[in-house]
Design goal:
Layout: H1 2-9, H2 13-39, H3 46-69, H4 75-97, H5 102-108, E1 115-120, H6 126-135, E2 141-148, H7 154-161, E3 166-168, H8 171-176, H9 181-186, E4 191-194, H10 203-208, E5 213-217, H11 232-240, E6 245-252, E7 262-269, H12 276-300
The structure holds 5-O-phosphono-beta-D-ribofuranosylamine.
5-O-phosphono-beta-D-ribofuranosylamine binds at residues 121, 123-128, 195-196, 216-218, 283, 287.
Length: 302
């Protein structure tokens, strides 16, 4: 049961212990204060007393748990948890009363304040791993899905060890069907991160996730971008052209290869001794350093 909770909330064993302690102490504080407040009312008959007591503790519980969570260092978790309960209750009521199309409500009002990202990758997935590690205990962002076009891709093994749901996509449906937009919405995906994903993103997906799809490219765009410029091809071209620097580009995705507006670039030196492999190593180091934090900045800092 504890393992299940750990996976559900994406917390370490130690944090789970602190969370359970907060629940226990918060509950006790709530019961104690509830009885004190009830004593202030002169109600004799038992049914109204019970109803009033239930009402008081329902209102008091979030406050008590938040108070206890501060010294135990779990305020962020409980703020998010209580928000989530609030959204579940009030969010559902709003959906039945307003007339917004279903499409909009599933995208924008997923019943959680956590931003759910999907990572699309075709290869080993070292960037996916860096992002998963970065957000492991985050109360704000969670890696909710790994998408791959290659059933044998290393990134799918990472997904399975990390207990992250994965989705293997097929060409026909991706390019000529709904581009898996319905499935992504159904899973509450808010944001898409491409990390070594080798298929071009179809416009149906770009339109559904406008300004919500980003990519990382292993060179300083606009140089060394475009069709065929991926993996070792990029580094070989950089070395063949005797460049003295290369780097990474994180950018929004539009309908053209490696073209959307640039979010961040970081550089590294290319020396005479560099080979495509050694350059790939330098680039990976830059990627793992900057991609997770760039995603975090985009999703949490405005
Ligand atoms: C990275 O170099 C990235 O820039 C490019 O594909 C590579 C993926 O590497 N788009 P990994 O699978 O994350 O290790």
């Amino acid at each position: 049961m504890f393992k299940g909770l750990q996976q559900k909330w994406k917390v370490s064993g130690w944090q789970l212990l602190l969370i359970i302690t907060t629940f226990a102490l918060g509950g006790s504080l709530c019961g104690y204060s509830g009885r004190k407040i009830l004593g202030l009312f002169a109600i004799d008959s038992s049914l109204p007393r019970v109803i009033l007591y239930l009402l008081i503790i329902t209102l008091l519980w979030p406050l008590c748990v938040l108070i206890i969570s501060i010294p135990l260092g779990q305020f962020a978790f409980f703020k998010n948890y209580i928000n989530k309960i609030g959204r579940r209750i009030f969010g559902k009521r709003r959906q039945t009363t307003d007339n917004k199309p279903q499409e909009e409500t599933t995208m924008v009002h997923h019943p959680s304040s956590i931003v759910r990202i999907a990572i699309f990758a075709s290869g080993a997935g070292s960037n996916a791993r860096a992002i998963i590690n970065h957000f492991r205990n985050s109360p704000a962002v969670t890696v909710a899905l790994i998408v791959s076009n290659k059933p044998e891709a290393g990134v799918l093994k990472i997904a399975s060890t990390e207990n992250i749901p994965s989705l293997i996509i097929e060409k026909e449906k991706f390019f000529r069907g709904n581009a898996y937009v319905d499935e992504l919405r159904e899973k509450g995906i808010d944001f898409v991160v491409l990390a070594g994903f080798l298929w071009k993103v179809p416009s149906a997906l770009i339109k559904a996730y406008q300004n919500k799809i980003i990519n990382i490219h292993p060179a300083l765009l606009p140089k060394y971008g475009g069709k065929g410029m991926y993996g070792a091809h990029v580094h070989e071209a950089v070395i063949a052209n005797k460049e003295t620097e290369s780097g990474i580009t994180i950018h929004y995705v539009d309908e053209l290869y490696d073209h959307g507006s640039i979010i961040l670039q970081a550089k590294c030196e290319v020396t005479e001794n560099d080979t495509p492999e050694s350059l790939a190593g330098k680039i990976h180091t830059l990627e793992h350093l900057h991609y997770p934090t760039a995603v975090e900045t985009l999703l949490t800092k405005h």
